[in-house]
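Priority: medium. Attachment 1 of 2:
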């Protein structure tokens, strides 16, 4: 069965991960976001209980 022979496919997988890790990943991580998050003070929400009509 050719699926069980890892000889060509293992090398292809290793080379593709090395290419991704060393070349493509640093290029994609170097991009800066167009909308950086703004530091905002968290708003406190006021929780009011619901008055049920059948009480």
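Attachment 2 of 2:
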């Amino acid at each position: 069965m050719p699926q069980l022979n890892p000889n060509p496919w293992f090398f292809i997988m290793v080379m593709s991960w090395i290419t991704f890790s060393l070349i493509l990943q640093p290029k994609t991580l170097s991009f800066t976001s167009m909308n950086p998050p703004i530091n905002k003070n968290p708003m406190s929400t006021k929780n009011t209980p619901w008055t049920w009509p059948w009480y």
